[in-house]
Design a protein that fits this description.
This protein has a six-stranded mixed beta sheet, with helices on both faces. Strands 2-8-7-4 form a four-stranded antiparallel beta sheet, with no helix packed on it. Strands 11-10-9-12 form a four-stranded parallel beta sheet, with helices on both faces. The protein has 432 residues and is an alpha/beta fold. The radius of gyration is 21 Å and the shape is globular. Among the domains are: 156 residues, NADH-ubiquinone oxidoreductase 51kDa subunit (Rossmann fold, 3-Layer(aba) Sandwich); 64 residues, no CATH class. The chain has 13 helices and 17 strands. β7 and β8 form a beta hairpin. The structure holds iron/sulfur cluster (SF4) (2 copies).
Length: 432
Amino acid sequence: MFPTFARGVHPPQLKTTAEMPVRRLGFAPELHIPLGQHIGAPAQCVVKVGQRLERGSLIAEGRSFVSASIHAPVTGTVRKIGWLATPQGQRIQGIVLASEPGAGQEHVPFRAPPDLNDPGQWVDAVARSGLVGLGGAAFPTHVKLKVPDGRNVDTVMINGAECEPYLTADHRAMLEWPDDIVSGSLLMKKVLGAERVVIGVEANKMDAVKALERASNNCVDIRVVQVKYPQGAEKMLIRALLRREVPAGGLPMDVGVVVANVQTAAMIARLVPKGLGLVERIVTVAGDAVEKPGNYLVPIGTPVGFLLQSAGVVPDCQRVILGGPMMGVSVADLQLPITKGTSGVLAFKTAQDHESGPCIRCGYCVQACPMSLNPAAIMRSARGGDLDGCVQYRLRDCFECGSCAFVCPSKIPLVQYFRQAKLDLRKQPVAV
Ligand code: SF4
Ligand code: SF4
């Protein structure tokens, strides 16, 4: 039996695109590029309206430690700098780039290649490349590579679990870019001074395990984990592979681990040594409203509507989700762009079922929660406006995996309550 974590759920996998090689998507006429598409401070725009840019040139600079730079995903002209909508219903500053007719795939370096033997220069190059966690979290990669004084990282863990139903972008990356994944992870190991690299892959991707084994030449440790959701969550993967527990409110680094997604590791090798910026990522497009499902290499900033049209979306599409069905967000505005954190776009012919019943105190949600929380109790506190109760029931440890809502027989939208309560908590005045 392969290792795993406690609790969790088994949603149907529906990974019908796993056999489909990655296809490159053409350029949309306009790309919409938000300046804050990562965790941390938004990047600062460094271009002007009317300016012509080559694909790969710097358009916004991450000037805070926790931020990420952004590069032009297409050769073209800056049409507008202003407010853009986000999937969360907010507005954020961004750049609209008009693609040049006939724009090519050439990708220009925005800086000289770094000296890979100089760790400081190398981490700086990762920061300037705009790399973030491509598994969906979009946490700036360079921040993970700077180990604070007094800390020690012994393990680089590369996350190839991809446990969300439908999504196969990481699976394809492991099949098509295994050498890059191994090279990128070894570069991380070197700069962190770690002892080993462990790559965790779910048991439904044994072809990817073989591809990585061939590429690794025994330099990295490739381990198979059970197929269970949310096995791809950092804390769950660390628990499964190392039997270490990341403390509540803590980070993997607290237990000597730095985790990176497989696409992130591949992009480190593909971009950083050449002085290139991140301009595209693999996105799974699937669902019963898509005629040409598959995995597409998509320029950052491509409108979701353009991607769906290219994938043959049917006219009676009723629902579009960015990400997977468990943790993704339903969106109505198809002008919203693909960002660095968009792992999938799912389109369905049926609308979401909003009918929910009362809590019958069955306890299924408690049995499912991988963080050992009591989701029903948090929900009751949230519904009653009792934010202190939410905190006592450890709302902050909830990472919104959706396992509780998946098993709830009353179809209570538990995660929606948790997200709203977290927003309300952030608005509370800070005690001094
Ligand atoms: S309470 Fe949070 S962490 Fe626990 S199952 Fe529900 S969404 Fe996941
Ligand atoms: S699974 Fe749903 S009905 Fe059962 S206790 Fe949890 S919230 Fe209540």
